[in-house]
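Hi support team,

I'm opening this ticket because the web form for multi-chain structure prediction keeps timing out on my end. I have pasted the exact lines I submitted so you can reproduce it. The total is 556 residues across two entries, so I didn't expect it to be a heavy job. Is there a limit I'm missing, or should I split the entries? Thanks in advance, R.K.
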Amino acid sequence: MKVDWQTFWPRIVEATFETLTMVLTTLAFSTIIGTIIGLTLFVTRKGGILENKWVSFILNLGINIIRPIPFVILLVALTPLTRLVVGSIIGTAAAIFPITIAASFVVARVVENNLISIDPGVIEAAEAMGASPFQIIRTVLIPEALGPLILGLTFVTVSLIDFSAVAGTVGGGGLGHVAMTHGYQRFDTSVIVVTVVILIILVQLSQWLGNKISRKILRR
Amino acid sequence: MITFHNVTKTFTTKNREVTAVKDVNLTIEQGDIFGIIGFSGAGKSTLLRLVNLLEEPTEGKVTINGQDITVLSKKQLREQRRDIGMIFQNFNLFTSRTVFGNIAYPLQLAGVAKGEVTRRVNELLTFVGLTEKAKHYPEQLSGGQKQRVGIARALATSPSILICDEATSALDPNTTADILQLIQKVNRELGITVLLITHEMQVIEAICNRVAVMEEGQVIETGTVFETFSNPQHPTTQRFIRATEQDLPSAHLLGQWSDTQLYRIIFKGDRASDPLLSKITRKHDVDVNIIYGTVKELQQRFFGNLIVSFEGQPAAVAQVLQELKQIVEVKEVQVA
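Hello R.K., no limit was hit. The queue was backed up. Here is the completed structure from your submission:
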């Protein structure tokens, strides 16, 4: 049975908002968690301002275990934990938890890579001026890495749109869910086309916004 | 006053140990502009970083005004570092901050009130001559301007010591001269002790009063700039001097004098202004032929180096040499 577009548009609008909610919420959570992990990775690495072999080793191991797992598998594997934390495994809220976990590790690596590209001399200068490790993190590492970091987060946002669509296919809400149930399972190509077009627009918008913000910070 | 007591710094990498600084004893007096010169890899950069403990000594101790800084707690060390300004070869300015923001940074770290920060930064901008550039970002500045910002930032917390890590090595000769003048002004007007490292003789000659020559982690020669450079003992020191001035013409030119005995006369201090060569040779009826030479100013004193030959009766020449030797340094030049 094909959808009746006269009555289906409100459902599309609703699904778009669900997707936006998932993307923005997970972006906020994963940025916070990922930045903390990424900073920890950077400062504890060899020669770092808070060098710590064990913390560095364990974090790297954790990331290297989680990251290669395909998102759809991670999503299913995290189900018991999701039920425990969110109380349900269906719907938008339930999708936010596994997406945040997966995205945090991506953000962590993005943050770490951007920090590595900071000139070590600048960090040394701050140390020579009597800055404590936490002052260095707050006043040197974050501001110096912010421009490229915004670009990295834009890249992550695009992945989040992808992740949210995948989560939608296995019980999460949003455009992925709509595409899966109405488009794929009922062979309605028009639904697939509409959802894909909306996803493309979302990706373009976030890329445009990310470029604009990072350009402003990088002054170029 | 900065003192190094038997300081050794060893870096341990996976497969081997590298001793960057080996048993160094050195004293930098209050008010000095002390230069450490060495070729790259000599350990001077590590030695400099031992002063503010960016590198910790493996053995020995470093004292500043009598205080052994290696025993300070982390918090005390951060306090101590505010008394030691540091500037760098690559300036190391914060790209996310304006010129004003860069200079304000150490004051903000120290918790200085906002109004006082503004007052102090403006004062420093005037001192380094960059009042127009306060709102610019580092990438909008020339190398010399960047180093001026670096100096202003290093001076923000009114330190008693300024350490300079190859501060002019990335600059062109004209800008180098400007920055060296500024460092001299810091020393003279603010009474700040300067410790600098360089591989350039010109830097030492231009502003330092005392010098240490480093090689393979060790201090091989130290003293006042005038004594050290007018009478270098160690071959490495001699090489540095030859880098800015040749004390002998090339072997090719020298070969033309293989049948004549050449002498090298070294004048120091105020003697270079006396017509002594002319007086003594005239007295003994000997002709002097100046083949090669330089007379220059080093630390407000003359330093002359002449290659000459004498023509006259052998006995008279011997008399001339004997009299000259009582006043200046005379060496026979070996022509290969």
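A quick check on our side: Chain B has a mean pLDDT of 90. Let us know if the file doesn't open in your viewer.
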